[in-house]
């Protein structure tokens, strides 16, 4: 709903308060999944394989994470929290003290680096459940953040749609295609985003003119 975007958001991805035994099981499951990814790649992640590696019943794994996609997204939480801390409370130009146009550019550049670092696990999560991305806490936080900045840069725009469109180039499968198959580096992708948005010297032009 337009007009409902908050000025800043809380960092998402924080696990809810839970009993000590539940927290231990959650940690065992995530550690086991991380070990499988490190040893054999994210394609090795199945609920049965994780349960066996963790020494926990597969029913417990399903109750905690639901499916492989949710488990893979949970593996990204720690890195996601660090990324969110940067754009929600870090220094300018990425953090709150930066100008809106500069913050938007800095955010998209930081997102390119973030996806480059995590793309293997992100790609596996996308393959397991393509639409899960759009309902995950991480994506909703990014979308609300970009919407907020767009409202400050161009109040008359449909910021919700524009935010989705600005985040679309960072779909893990597209990012992998650009880097692995097209031979583009994250720096070249950042330059392409700048050109696409008409960015020049940190100022938005064209559809995002201040």
UniProtKB/TrEMBL annotation:
Organism for this UniProt entry: Streptomyces wuyuanensis
Keyword entries, A-Z: DNA-binding
SUPFAM superfamilies: Homeodomain-like, Tetracyclin repressor-like, C-terminal domain
Pfam families (UniProt xref): TetR_N
Record domain HTH tetR-type: where: 23-83
GO MF: DNA-binding transcription factor activity; transcription cis-regulatory region binding
DNA-binding region, residue intervals: 46-65
Region of interest: Disordered: 1-21
Keyword DNA-binding applies: yes
Domain of life: Bacteria
Protein name: DNA-binding transcriptional regulator, AcrR family
